[in-house]
Amino acid sequence: MVTGQHRTSPHETSDQHVIGQRGTDQARLSQDDHGPGDSPGGGDSPGDDAGVGAYRRAWERAASDPAEFWADAARAVTWTRPPRRVLDADRPPFYRWFPDAELNTCANALDRHVDAGRGSDLALIHDSPVTGTIRRYTFTELTDEVARAAGALAALGVRRGDRVIIYLPMIPAAVISMLACARLGAVHSVVFGGFAPAELAARIDDARAKVVVSASCGLEPNRIVAYKPMLDEAIALAAHPPEHTLIVARPQQPAPLVPGRDHDWDAALAAATPHPPVPVAATDPLYILYTSGTTGRPKGIVRDNGGHAVAMAWSMGNVYGIRAGDVMWAASDVGWAVGHSYTVYAPLLAGATTVLYEGKPVGTPDAGAFWRVVAEHGVNVLFTAPTAIRAIRREDPNGDLPGRYDLSGLRALFLAGERLDPATCDWASTTLGIPVIDNYWQTETGWPIASSPLGLEPLPVKAGSPSLPMPGYDVRVLDDTGRPVPAGVEGALCLRLPLPPGTLPTLWGDDERYAASYLRAFDGFYLTGDGGYLDDDGYLFVLGRTDDVINVAGHRLSTGSMEAVLAEHPAIAECAVVGVADPLKGQVPRGLVVVKAGVEIDPAVLAADLVARVRERIGPVAVFRRVDVVTALPKTRSGKILRRTMREIADGRSPAVPPTIEDPAVLDALRPVLRAH
Ligand code: COA
Ligand code: AMP
């Protein structure tokens, strides 16, 4: 990240791009402000305040009086004990939303819609081109299933506060087990199926999971993914193995169960007593979602119950424009933040129907798959990653396939997870003829930092920008010394504390790591890890990570964890992994290794071995396919490997050679290797 570089004509005042200043005082609500049974559509539901200037008014309200703003939004949630205090700011830099309130997130997502007479409305549609099946659940059916799953987990000893790992493909049991944990007040942690056993074991250990919910297998278009054998391997690797597992048996590849430890999902649910929702503190954790940091050790992002429910309800209506009765499809695996927020929780909290898709944008069976799903289920809002649209575009460059389906119900396409390149944005807008909305957020925030809020007030689009900060987010661009830079100048994207409801209160079991990773760089600010700038109109431009995190096909990965695998090889003296530009996946990792002196090894054999090791240790999701054996790595005089310089050369750019370089000849020798694709 280059700080101090002008991108547009700058204004030289430090704060001129900041829309407002926000108070951090804690506040109290009168008991009369809230009551159980407040309607899900309350607060800032779309339409309440919608119209010209609605966005700015909402942003300013959230900035000047966050307690009042979020208290208002909290009316969309049914509390078993309504909040009297909105924000606990007693222990900065740690903040807690709705510290004295109680609720059950699952009851908010399911039971209350049944209680409101909407039990026969559709809650979940599982569309699975890989198995050729479609299954629909009404709110009543889903509530019953979830209550049984909660009963089954309780029978295995799961209680409020216990952790449950969910390692499942995109099948209804994934949604059901997440909600079942929420019903019990247990804490779920979903692990994406593309991760290898060692990664699963690390998460089992960090969370000290009591139970793991998994399946016999998953189905990728080109192969069967053997979940159960991977789970068995992970349990063997774990220092703190779970007491029990619940296994969904799939006909495509059954798996043997270990007596006493493993239990069949269907049998357990059939035998279970339905469990009622357990009220929990708003500040209790709802889930942990592990995400890649700069080291090999993943960070356990904690999501609370109360702030999360409020943020989900607010954003579903105001950002995505989805209300009760609408159909939302977030085509992301539930192993990622988008899947948690906008496939599972937010649509159901809003009383909308959600689509769970077990397939790919292309190849299941073709690049028209997304449009078929939209038409068949009457999807109103589609949310995916730019890489999925790039994959579709590559196979349907002229955009012919959408024309074969009735897409008249589709109001908008939201894209997030990585930078939205203008060509992909243009293709989607032209082909679909609807708003294509770039929104920027992170696993840590759980909902958009910046977007055009479709439900509140659609904003004019600027190519390459996810538009303006959402209410509750005060985005500042800081230089290396922590001073705000003028508009148009690049710097570190930071968020002024406190962060709004729904964002991470801490890392699982590690307040110190939370503070060290995010809060210490600049006093009073959360460090996003992204570089970027704000333009004269306050529009945000995200230029990419400033750390060792890369985005591969919308999946967040750590180059540090790949380097750790390479470094373990006995022949390797030094290594570096950098994320280089890829036309389909946005970025892909590339390895560079130096062999120890005296070691004789065929570079091709070594490279193949290293590729296999990364797949084996981290998983296929890493897409680690290229490693070059080189004689030396370029470094600064203090020994820091010049990863960014190498990445920029690999991307075809000509970066300035840092003056601190130890030996420019090393970098010169590498240029042809880096430029070769
Ligand atoms: N379980 C097991 N393996 C998985 C998996 C899962 N849930 N998801 C992906 N993988 C495997 C793939 O099979 C592939 O394995 P391979 O090396 O044997 O081919 C590997 O991981 C890499 O997967 P991916 O990077 O997804 O590539 P792909 O070629 O299978 O698909 C896209 C490319 C663009 C179609 C796909 O990446 C995609 O749909 N991306 C959208 C991402 C997204 O929604 N992100 C959420 C954030 S918003
Ligand atoms: P994840 O935690 O997996 O959601 O990844 C978060 C990271 O993805 C961010 O820190 C950004 O680097 C990147 N990202 C997400 N959305 C966008 C976007 N709309 N534009 C640019 N980068 C994005």
TrEMBL record:
Residues 55-109 form the Acetyl-coenzyme A synthetase N-terminal domain. It holds the Pfam family AMP-binding. Residues 562-640 form the AMP-binding enzyme C-terminal domain. Residues 1-52 are annotated as: Disordered. Transmembrane segments: none annotated. Residues 126-497 form the AMP-dependent synthetase/ligase domain. Belongs to the ATP-dependent AMP-binding enzyme family. This is AMP-binding protein. It comes from Frankia umida.
